[in-house]
Amino acid sequence: MYLRTIIILCVAVYLIILFYGSVIGNYGFSEISEDYNSMIYTMSDNPYPQDIIVAKLLPFPNKSKIINAIEYQNPKVRNFAIMATTKHFKKIRGYSDYRTIIQCFAVFKEINSRWNYVNDPKEGDYIATASESLEYFSGDCDDHSILMAAAVRAIGGTPRLIHTKGHIYPEILIGSMIDLEKVNYLIKNVLFVKESYGKKLHYHIDERGQVWMNLDYTATYPGGPFMYEEILGALTLN
């Protein structure tokens, strides 16, 4: 009897707190609903994400050339990234903790909507710099990855490149699993609603428990399907 009374009182106090939070604009009913939806989306979309296991059997191809080509401090790259943030998602409000992620997703949207895949010369790999790729938004997978990584890093994001068999693609650091819940909700319900409808998010979890999301040129939304599952190496740009 006493336990039931205590439970009822606790529930009543909790509802009063939520009501008060809603009135003054702090944590209230809408926020708890959003957090619940975020958790449900994450659980239903990818309950068993692929753990990233980097097999250090092969060196990262063209590592030094790629690092030099990621010109994140080049004014052209920086200005392009800023342009993308003013063109996409500028009016999104209420997610200040994820502003950088949202802006990086704007960069992803701009690059992937314009990218034209073109093969390298038959003689071998051609590594285009990020500023060079801005001329025509064309090239192969490593050129796309270089531009994406440079533009993301130019506005405060943390990118890395993943090497698979015959392919390189970019990923962005999302954060913890808690951050993933919020980002999952943003992608599904705010930023890429049509593109991600009924689809799963694809990401990796590294050895420190950090979540990295796919930004490949084949994806129409952040976290789109991987082209290849096998991972041969990773190049992180801190």
UniProtKB/TrEMBL annotation:
The chain crosses the membrane at residues 6-29. It holds the Pfam family Transglut_core. This is Transglutaminase. InterPro entries: Papain-like_cys_pep_sf (IPR038765), Transglutaminase-like (IPR002931). SUPFAM superfamilies: Cysteine proteinases (SSF54001). Residues 105-164 form the Transglutaminase-like domain. Keywords: Membrane, Transmembrane, Transmembrane helix. The keyword DNA-binding does not apply.
